[in-house]
Amino acid sequence: MDGSAVVHVVDDDDAVRDSLAFLLESSDFTVRTYASAADFLAVAGTFRTGCVLTDVRMPGMDGLTLQKQLVARGCRLPVIVMTGHGDVPIAVQALKNGASDFLEKPFDDAALLAAVRGAMAESLRAEEAAAGAAELTERLAALTPREREVLERLVAGQANKTIAFDLGTSPRTVEVQRARVMEKMGARSLAELVRMSLVLEGVARPPR
Questions:
Q1: pLDDT at 7
Q2: Which domains does the chain carry?
Q3: Is there a contact between 10 and 36 (Cβ–Cβ < 8 Å)?
Q4: Are 56 and 83 spatial neighbours (Cβ–Cβ below 8 Å)?
Q5: Rounded distance, CA 68 to CA 64, Å?
Q6: 185 or 4: which leads in pLDDT
Q7: What's the CA gap between 150 and 161, in Å, rounded?
Q8: How many angstroms separate the CA atoms of 115 and 121, rounded?
Q9: Predicted pLDDT of residue 85
């Protein structure tokens, strides 16, 4: 397990927090516990990988509000919500809001551990994707304005001759610029360059 990935247990019941921490630590997870949603929100922005295991019903800020606050703050940690009997509609709402999973009390240890492992894997995949996107953004910044124009037309499917006509230059010049774009972006093929542009498009697109 990645040592930087932490399971954050948020529950106002001391006994529940202690029990969950013991179970998770016995399964080699790193655990931090919080007695309220506000306590966790105060430090949530410092964590990049891990997951949140939170009770839905808590005094003050409940689990659903905590989840919404995390999304609003750009915190991408997967959230697992724990619900009591009869709270399935609340759990469904949590899933619609982007929760990773929900557990209906009483749940067994195996179900909890499976949910946490799934959320941790999701978090690590997201972090790897974010790191890859950041690297592509750096590569894109190294392109000249003209090379960016060539890149945009290449991924739009335009041929060298068409690009040359649109930009008022020669096909040979476009070939040279295309080679520079491929080299700077680290793309081995046009298909790979298109995939890179799709990743960058996803980064630039504002969240809904």
A1: 95
A2: 6-128 (3.40.50.2300), 142-204 (1.10.10.10)
A3: yes
A4: yes
A5: 6
A6: 185
A7: 12
A8: 10
A9: 66
Q: Is the dihedral of CA 56, 62, 64, 70 positive or negative?
A: negative
Inter-residue contact 84 to 58 (CB < 8 Å) = no
93-140 pLDDT per residue, tens: 888 877 888 888 888 899 999 999 999 998 888 777 777 777 888 889
Residue 86's pLDDT band, with cuts at 50, 70 and 90, is: low
Q: Which helix (H) or strand (E) holds 120?
A: helix 109-141
Q: Look at the alpha carbons of 140, 145, 147, 150 in this order and tell me if their dihedral is positive or negative.
A: positive
d(CA 71, CA 53): 15
For the cut 60, the answer to whether the pLDDT of residue 208 exceeds it is no
Unique residue bearing structure tokens 């997951």: 51
Q: 119: part of which helix (H) or strand (E)?
A: helix 109-141
- 133 is written with which tokens? 């996107």
